[in-house]
Design brief:
Shape: elongated
Distance between the termini: 119 Å
Strand order of the largest sheet: 1-2-3-4-5-6-7
Helix content: 25-40%
Number of strands: 17
Length: 488
Amino acid sequence: MVRITEDLIRRRAEHNDCEIFSLEEISLHQQEIEKLEYLDKWCRDLKILYLQNNLIPKIENVGKLKKLEYLNVALNNIERIENLEGCEELKKLDLTANFIGELSSIETLKYNIHLNELFLVGNPCTEFEGYRQYVVATLHQLKCLDSKEIERSERIQALQNYPEVKQKIREQERAYLLKRAREKEEAQRRLQERKDKKEKQMKSKLGFDSSESLKNKENHQAEGDREQETWRTAEDDEEDRRFWEEPTPYTPETRLETHRYIEEKRRAKDNTRESKKREKPPRTLVTAEGKVLNVNVPKLHFSLKDDEENNQIILDLAVYRHLDTSLLDVDVQPTYIRVLVKGKPFQLVLPEEVKPDISSAKRSQTTGHLVVSMPKAKEIILAKQKVSTSVKHSDCNTPQKNARRVQRRTLGHVSLTSVPRKIMEQILLEDPPRSLLEAHGEQRGDSRQPAWFHQGLVLPDQSRGLLWWSDYISGRRKSNGYHLPGLL
């Protein structure tokens, strides 16, 4: 049974900042409410109240709502109109699809002088002969009945025939009340039969269980769970079929019975689902053979990076940004890593062995991700090898770099005593000065020997100490006839 509570009203008063004392409009439809209460104490300023599609059997506890202008109690189990005299500002009343058969109860609405609209469509009283004439003649303040405007001529005619129509309505009311008494007795009998059937089923089940031994019980629970579940499903389907195919009158009792039946089935289904969750075996993280499995129960995005520069493996796990760090449990093993996120395991096999004792885990302050750095167990000294290779390379090429540095000096003089003989020979054969090449029409970088070498170009001896390249450009190289001992 659902009742109106303060928490329910506050949840439905979000448009008013969850304040209920100043609430002017509230919607409590489809809440399966079975009793109307507390609203006249907590929400005195209500102007609009929606209570349609519930299980309310009686209008009550709304008489103190002096400012109430619109009341909607359609699709409920109301059988008579009452307790609305105190709603002084009531202008619109919706009683569609209820069970009002006591039509004379509308006389209590005479005191609601501002009542302009009334809806009684779908009630048993609308099938009475003279129903509309009786309502129009009884409630003079009405302007619209069942979405149809009341004309002046219609009201005059209803007032003229009011005594006769009233008598007919009274007779039809008595017949309806007798019928309702029989329906109530039938509903009570049907409810009692249903209870007796359930008790018999429970007794038979208990007797069957008592006749079994403890060992048989254990075997039955261990081996026959699936068969029992199948049997229960078939039995429930058969019961549902009988319940929904059985012809029943449309009464407040049958409507309430249908609701209780649906609620009972839903509760049983929820209990079955919860039991299955409890009986669910734990997820396998490591097989019986010792093989570690990859598991991502929390369904988080992640990335695994191999940082070769720092010789480590980095795991970036996209945990929830506002998740408290105390809900994370990190376990690093040499071949895998396991992270528990709110008790849900995330496990990943690593491509290489790591060192768990010096691994570190931290949270990103911007994204909230969990970053785990795991140094590799196999150390590779890449930095030292690179340094040593570069040093050796630089040592071998130092004379060549120095010689090329001397070669670039195309202007001025070069000291031949400071350059080794073999290096000078290599320079002259492979890469002569640009000025000599241009003077004799040779291209720089040509692999062939230059023409001035074949023409017998000679260099001054070491005694001069310095060689001026301009002397050879001006054509004096042949006339001087200088030779560099040991080169040519």
